[in-house]
Amino acid sequence: MAVELKKLREMDVSQLAKEEMDLREEVWKLRLQITTGQLQDPSKVRRKRRDLARVMTIKREQALANQKGDRR
What's the confidence (pLDDT) of residue 23? Predict the structure, then answer.
């Protein structure tokens, strides 16, 4: 797995936001490379999109945990 879940879960919200932006930019660049015919391995896009989904999921988990903690 390209992005370790344990490492992601240890990150705070600002670090996860930065990681999300980096992955979004990387996916965009890879898609450009596909359209111009420069990318040799198109499956890289899929792997990066999955990494992005993992980051977004962990951000959501943390937001829900904080929200649940505020209600108590």
Answer: 97
